[in-house]
Amino acid sequence: xxxxxxxxxxxxxxxxxxxxxxxxxxxxxxxxxxxxxxxxxxxxxxxxxxxxxxxxxxxxxxxxxxxxxxxxxxxxxxxxxxxxxxxxxxxxxxxxxxxxxxxxxxxxxxxxxxxxxxxxxxxxxxxxxxxxxxxxxxxxxxxxxxxxxxxxxxxxxxxxxxxxxxxxxxxxxxxxxxxxxxxxxxxxxxxxxxxxxxxxxxxxxxxxxxxxxxxxxxxxxxxxxxxxxxxxxxxxxxxxxxxxxxxxxxxxxxxxxxxxx
Length: 261
Hints:
This protein is mainly α. Helix 1 (2-11) packs antiparallel against helix 2 (15-31) and helix 6 packs antiparallel against helix 7. It has 14 helices and no strands.
């Protein structure tokens, strides 16, 4: 069979031949209505290609596997394949493709009300966004994750999300946005009356008062160490901005100099 041939070629490290045999075996199962086997064979091929330096082809095969899992109403496996695709995606490629795949995976899980399975994929997505300096997009994802935490009744996790949003705002040097986001989160599930809310308030107040020592102390509080590692590191290095201006406002150069004059 094609599946046996694929494994033989794989053991012989014949990449092109193994790739072709895996896909043919998968296609045959797909035509016969054996969707689970069709998808897993594509995943096996993707893993083989990834391990042999074919990252782009591997990522595409993981995505193809996810589509077959979707047709088989297997949301968890669909999301898992999309996560694997994002992780396999070449490091020198644009992150937007990997970001889309992870968002699609989250959507598949949430549509199936499998909120308890979204934690790792949200974490991976946020890591990509933050490390590619897409702070505003990361904040939107954190808000979506907080809604998911509410559905899953994960109070502590939701509280951390609120504090992470405020830290991201201040890492941008945007006190105006930090204030706005904090006020919008005040009554949010999990965040309201939490220790995270108290620290977020202290961070915003310190930045508003242009008190670097107070800001640094707030960013070193114990509760901060339980945030996402990237965000926790940001919190400890926050600097008082030179001026109050929002990254979401469209200032031109003339207006900027008028604003800070």
